[in-house]
Structure formats: C-alpha cells, structure tokens
Amino acid sequence: MTAISDFILGRSSEPRLQAPAPGPGVLARAFACAARAPDHGLLRPWRYLVVEGEGLERLGDLFADTYGPEADEKILAKLRKSPLRAPMVIIAIASPVEHPKIPAHEQVLSAAASTTLLELALQDAGFGVMWRTGSPAYNPAVTEALGLSKQESVIGFIYTGSVISAKPAVPRLEPTVFVSRWPQ
Q1: Mean pLDDT score of the chain
Q2: Residue 5 counted as an annotated binding residue
Q3: pLDDT tens digits for 32-80?
Q4: What is the pTM of this model?
Q5: Is 22 within 8 Å of 88 (Cβ atoms)?
Q6: Residue 161 and residue 140: Cα distance in Å, rounded?
Q7: Could you tell me which of 120, 92, 105, 89 has the C-alpha nearest to residue 43?
Q8: pLDDT at 167 over 90
Q9: Is 44 flagged in the annotation as binding?
Q10: Is 13 labelled a binding residue?
Q11: What range(s) does the Nitroreductase domain occupy (predicted)?
Q12: Which of 67, 79, 146, 157 has the fewest CB within 10 Å, making it most exposed?
C-alpha cells in the first residue's frame, strides 16, 4: 500500500470542530483538488458556497425560517444552531447541465466525487470535516434562498475546522461484506 491508501484508510468524519477554519491558501488548494474529480465530458457539474462568520448565523436562520409550520421551538433552536457546530460550512452543490450523452445522475455522481476529494484535501491539510445533509439540503425554500437554479441540488453541507477532540474509531466493514465476483 501507499501513503495515499493509508491516508484514505485513516479518514473519518469529525463532528467536534472549532476555529481556526481553513484559510484562503488551504481552500484554494482543496478546491483545486476537488476539480480533479472524474468528470465525463469535462462539464464541471459542481459548485461550492463557503459560509463563515456572520454567514453561519444567517444560514441557521434560513434553516429555521424555512422549516415549516410543524416546527416547535426546540426544532427551530436546533436548526438555528446547527451551522455553528463548525467555523466554516462549505455547501456542495450538484450543478448538472443538459447534455446529449451525459445524464444528470452521472453529473451528480461527479459532484459527489468532487466533494469527496475536497474533504480529503482538507483533512490532508490538518482540518476535520463532517459531511451533513438533513432536511435543509432537500428544502426548496433553502435551495432557492441560496441561489440554486431548478436543476441544481445541495449534496452536502461540509462542516470544517480544527478538531476539538478525536472521536472513537468507528468499526469498518471488511470488503468481503460488500464485494463479490460476477459471474459467480
């Protein structure tokens, strides 16, 4: 195995994050890595929004304000606080375009691969990362307020910052559980 494989095998989601967040240089390099995702047709069917500082509070307000009439105060408070769990949230957006040979679902997969490379690059730079979705990712009022077009979708809220404390190791599946040969 190589250092890259060892790094990937050590990857984990880190829910406990604090300042500092990645700076401009780290972000530029991480986004350059994200742009290396497999991308049939070189369509670049992804984009990202970086949210930090006061924007995190505004994002929490947006989550709460668009939740719906069934929300009680406890749910609304949780939604308002959720972006404050990290000093930076990067909103990963799948941005497929019409193409005669490359279907939209393939472009969404490319955007997810781009986001994975972004996460790995941030972790390689020493930052913790947590990919979250939840109801705000699928809420049309949220996506509209974020400026997404009708064909775009939020594929994740990427929380990033410095790890407060490492979490316990998560059991990992052995490949034999999810890999088989065909034909058998």
Answers
A1: 95
A2: no
A3: 999 999 999 999 999 999 999 999 999 999 999 998 878 889 999 999 9
A4: 0.95
A5: yes
A6: 28
A7: 105
A8: no
A9: no
A10: yes
A11: 22-161
A12: 146
Three-state secondary structure readout of the chain = CCHHHHHHHCCCCCCCEECCCCCHHHHHHHHHHHCCCCCCCCCCCEEEEEEECHHHHHHHHHHHHCCCCCCCHHHHHHHHHHHHHCCEEEEEEECCCCCCCCCHHHHHHHHHHHHHHHHHHHHHCCCEEEEECCHHHHCHHHHHHCCCCCCCEEEEEEEEEEECCCCCCCCCCCHHHHCCCCCC
| C-beta separation of 148 from 154 below 8 A | yes
11 is in an annotated binding site: yes
Tell me whether residue 99 is annotated as binding.
no
More confident residue, 171 or 94: 94
Angle at 165 between CA 111 and CA 25, to 5 degrees: 45
- Asked whether residue 99 carries a pLDDT value surpassing 80, the answer given is yes
133 is in an annotated binding site: yes
